[in-house]
Amino acid sequence: MEKILVSACLAGKRCRYDGKDNGVPQIQQLHAEGRCVLVCPEELGGLPTPRTPAEIVGSQVLTKDGEDVTEAFNAGAAAGLKIAQSENIKEAILKAKSPSCGCGQIYDGSFSRKLIVGNGQFAAQLLSARIKVKTELDL
């Protein structure tokens, strides 16, 4: 059975920026069946939970307070990609709109919930490694 890489927050892990989760029953069931590999790239990058919300602004990831957390996001994306490769992952289900996991659309960096075309740091790395990425909105 091939495993699917999943944003940990979608499986119910409280790793969202605000310390909550984005649990999706369908994904929680996959996790209960042992069919998922859970990853939170932001925590893998060394960021705490809870943490100040961040969005991609140009080539940087900035918190709402203006702190540059690009390095942590990149480190977490790289660590998550290593996990995916070590588990021979072919498909991922990631959190929509996230600066790490968003695929196809992300917030525009104004912290106004406006969406733009783009991918989060982790989603972009997975796609570059030819791993299929979708979000919970695609289920």
Question: What does the model show?
Answer:
With 139 residues, this protein is α/β, with parallel strands linked by helices. Helices cover 27% and strands 22% of the residues. It has four helices and eight strands; from the N terminus they run E-H-E-H-E-E-H-E-E-E-H-E. The protein has helices spanning 25-32, 41-44, 70-86, 121-128, and strands at 4-7, 36-39, 54-57, 60-63, 91-94, 105-107, 115-117, 132-135. Strands 2-1-5-8 form a four-stranded parallel beta sheet, sandwiched between helices. The protein has a two-stranded antiparallel sheet with strand order 3-4. A hairpin with a 7-residue loop joins strand 6 and strand 7 (115-117). The longest helix has 17 residues, at 70-86.
Provide keyphrases for this structure:
22% strand; 4-stranded parallel sheet; globular; DUF523 domain-containing protein; 2-thiour_desulf; single chain; 139 residues; alpha/beta
Brief digest:
This protein is of the alpha/beta class.
The succession of helices and strands, N to C, reads: EHEHEEHEEEHE
> Helicity level, as a percent range?
25-40%
Count of domain modules: 1
- The dominant shape is globular
Figure out the total of helices. 4
Radius of gyration: 14 Å
Largest sheet: 4 strands, parallel
Supply the helix-strand structural class: alpha/beta
What is the averaged pLDDT score?
97
Task: Report the portion of residues in β strands.
Answer: 15-25%
How many DSSP-defined strands?
8
What ranges have pLDDT less than 50 throughout 5 or more consecutive residues?
Answer: none
Could you give the distance between the termini?
19 Å
